[in-house]
Specification:
- By secondary structure, the protein is mostly helical.
- 60% of the residues lie in helices and 8% in strands.
- It is built from 14 helices and 7 strands.
Length: 413
Amino acid sequence: MSFSILFKMQYKQIILRKLNVAAQTLALLILASIANMISAQESANIQLPNDIVPKVFGQDAYSNTRGENLYDLGLTQQRANEHEKAVNTLRQATHMVRVNSGLYSLLQLPIIEAEIESLMQLNLFEEVDIRQNYLRRIQAKSLVGNEKIARGLIRQAEWQNKAYHLGLDQNDEEKLFRLVDMLNLYRVALTNLEEELGEYSPTLLEPLHGILKTQYLLTGLISKSIGVYERNLSRFENDGARAYRSQNYKQGKYVISAIYDLEKNTSNNPIQATQNSLTLLADWMLWNGKRGEAKRTYMEATRAGLTVTNEDFEETPVPAEIFPVPLPLPQLDGLKPLPDTVAEESADLLISFDITKTGRAINVKRQDNSNTEDAVARKIIRLISKTRFRPQLEFGEVVIAEGITYGFDTSTW
């Protein structure tokens, strides 16, 4: 339901205050004029009058329609790339809705979401974090229905992921708190969707993948903390961190199993569903240092659907070539272990390396003669060296991949 319709429904039960007709007419004329300007020119070139808010609304500060008009004006300023003005206007709109419709009115949601969009455009990420928390409180009080609630929770979890990668947290404790919150958001969303749509609904795949994504981040953070701080930890604290990592690993396997069950029931290609799930499982094993188990599981994925003709598993014939090149882990939407690569002719930084059978990058070297600073190149070399890769397989066997070259366009960073 549109924002305007929601407003009209809300105000049918409210006694309208007398509104200055001239002010209303002027408001409509100005907004109509702005709409024509947008359709007639590029939005980036639109210059809105600085005093437009007082002109349109100043004569009737607490009109019941002012929130809706301010929202429309804020969107217009947003389309004109006047994001600072849009933020101020949208905050006024939120205030008016709170005054007229209550502290937790559903009508606030599209206004706050629009404000967050402008704050993102201004790179004011700490303010985005604050407004996301406020949005979350409104959603918790106003949304009705498990599916709607779940969608709101998933969007909040996606923000937690983005905030984590933006580095908004000051220390590992704050990072851990954010990731645990992200994990819980996906879990509650999963529960709500299951109650609403049933345990076999393909809609459950989104929160399941979100849970797995979060567990990757948790394993990475905990492993980093153990590696850096284990000398300063007591044996009890160190053992506790390792126990949590072990538990997280087991939970990840359960999630992958659930993903497989759903994909198997909905896929028209059961062999591909099996290959995908075994690949997810092998990646997870390798990420957690289970190199032997990962190798066997990758090999098993290449043989999915084949009939075993020999007692020796490794001699099963004609394995599928589904791992032709190494790929950086994790291979999940929303996680980007390395910057985007480009064709060598478009790159200003070329890095070559080899990948071992256990997915480690070795012999990482710079290969270009461009003007890209050495400090930038060293940073990428360190990043590639620390990244775990899904290994290459040939004829169902894990092999060393040599002579890999990644091209980067650093001008986009």
